[in-house]
Amino acid sequence: MSSASGSYILPVELSKSYRLLNHGPTVLVSARHAGESNAMAAAWACALDYTPAKLTVVIDKATKTRQLMEQSGMFVIQVPTRAQARLVHHVGTRSALKEPGKIESAGVEWFEQAGFDVPLVAGCSAWMVCRLVPEPHNQAAYDLFIGEIVGAWADSRVFRDGHWLFEDAPDELRSLHYIAGGHFYAIGDAVTVDVASATAKA
Amino acid sequence: MSSASGSYILPVELSKSYRLLNHGPTVLVSARHAGESNAMAAAWACALDYTPAKLTVVIDKATKTRQLMEQSGMFVIQVPTRAQARLVHHVGTRSALKEPGKIESAGVEWFEQAGFDVPLVAGCSAWMVCRLVPEPHNQAAYDLFIGEIVGAWADSRVFRDGHWLFEDAPDELRSLHYIAGGHFYAIGDAVTVDVASATAKA
Question: For residue B137, which residues of chain A lie inside 8 Å, CB to CB?
Answer without folding.
Answer: 137
